[in-house]
Design a protein that fits this description.
It contains 23 helices and 19 strands. With 635 residues, it is α/β, with parallel strands linked by helices. Bound molecules: (2R)-2,3-dihydroxypropyl phosphate and manganese (II) ion. (2R)-2,3-dihydroxypropyl phosphate binds next to α13.
Length: 635
Amino acid sequence: MFTNNKYINKNTGFKLLVYALVIGLFWLKMSYIQGNIFSLNVENSNEAKILAFNPLSSIFLIFGIGILLGGRRGMFVSYILGSILLYVNILFYREYSDFITIPMLSQVANLADLGGSIGTILEYSDILLFVDVLIAAFLLFYLKPSRFQVFKPKRREGFILAIIAIPLFMINLQWAETERTDLLERTFDRNMLVKYIGLINYHVYDAVLQGQTEMKRSFADSNELVPAINYLNENKQEDSNRLEGVAEGKNVIVLSLESTQTFVVDNTLHGEEVTPYFNDLKEEGIYFDNFYHQVKQGRTSDSEFLLANSMYPLNRGAVFFTHSGNEYRGLPNLLSENGYFTNVMHANDKTFWNRNVMYDSLGYDEFFSKEDYPVTPEKSYSWGYLDEYFFQDSLNMMKEMEQPFYSKMITLTNHYPFTLPEDKKYIEEGETGSGTLNRYFQTIRYQDEALKQFVEEFKNSDLYEDTILVIYGDHFGISENHQKAMGEYLDKEINDYEQFQLQRVPLLIYGKGIDAEKNHTVGGQIDLRPTLTNLLGIKDENPIQFGHDLMDKDRRELMVTREGNFANEDYVGIQGTCYDRETGEEIESDVCEEGFEKAQEELETSDSIIYGDLLRYLDETEMIEEEMKSNKKEE
Ligand code: GP9
Ligand code: MN
């Protein structure tokens, strides 16, 4: 009896040791990844402690569930799956500086299509991130100090581990709330969530959000559109109609420049201009230098969404994928109703970003995709058809098009990983610590050359008389992962304010009859639609639009990002901190309170429409409102 007890005690001690070692191992790895591979911007020692603590609850949870379902093997499977989850996030993070969301997962085909870039994302040293799996296997299956000492976890123990995860998470959350109140209720960015609750808990949280959004559509009804219409009516402003109709009846070419940011404009590298052609061209049109992209995970497709609908894209996933079945009142649809032949030109697979489906919902008449271009390997590189050929073919197509037309062109070459054939490099690489940024200058320079050839030929063609050209950058190309290198190039420290200002993208409106001007108004892609319809003199009856005509002298200057940050005439508000927009100096945070609230309200209202598919009720709601108005008059 005595001896038996001794062995039991010994074995319990051994078991606890294995538990501690395996849990500790995963904890170590996760802490390493969270602290060293992701840039989570840890600001003080309290945050550093939270970051170190937060893996624990999730580790108890996954191991607990693993043991419950499959004992020792189950625990090992949890270890492997946990490791894969971490690694996939690392890969995703390298490309997007963001964490995976469930809607993004349903777009694996698209992600896999990241084509040329996947090879550049993988690193040999990544193998080291799996060495611990072997150690865990050894600890779990082969460590047997004696005949009586075997690690055989009981299901009951799995249950206990999973239960312990709950108070651990509560402690984690309470602790995190000392840094950020309402962490889970407010729309903070994912970097922040991961910093405070850890990557695996973040995924659990994301799954809960997913469930909630799916419920929203099922339970939505027409009444829900009323607060949105009221909100937008309250924020409506008198339109000055400046430049109204100056482009009436003209063709429109909207050119979306891949990953093109404002910081390259009028800037040099090795003493040479990076965008020499655009620098001159912008002097001949209306050029906006405080214009921001507002995209999130859907990147280019998000910018297309903003332009077409003047609504915000979503915080999670690409709305082109998640809500392509919604009803929209897209700009292409409006222009088609006004006699335009509306089309998109983009020499990539038509399924990329689910475009073939979404373009129908937005009301485009035609989509000229890869299969409509004479793409050959010689004329392609990395992501595909090189811009110069794309421009040439597209212009030829437009020359033959029925008029008036609205053509949305999307370039491709200036895309991460920013590689080019040797003979297309018109400038030396940069010399910063980031290869990505260094190559970016070359692809930007190439794009500028392709643009030159396109615009010059356009100017000499018959189209020039009757066509306006709207050129804008779709989103950033250089993510915050390259802040240090960016600082080297721009010769200043890139703090949050500077990083925010780097989200500006160029916007130029150019064409015969449009007088050149420099416009400093603060705006974003959400403002493109009302700006365009104003120039074209087209009445846009759709009340569900969040943007404001950029031409208005007295316009409400406000640009809201998907993170709930904002810029207005005077301030820039970033995650609760307030800056003077001109000087970048930090100022008292209450000054920005109103701006943050407004930003939140904008995003929530826009989201409610998309999640509830509320535009399907627009006619009905408007009819009821009309009726109410006329009833009031009669009384
Ligand atoms: C691909 C192009 C680039 O068709 O739109 O996509 P991005 O990764 O920039 O969203
Ligand atoms: Mn893009």
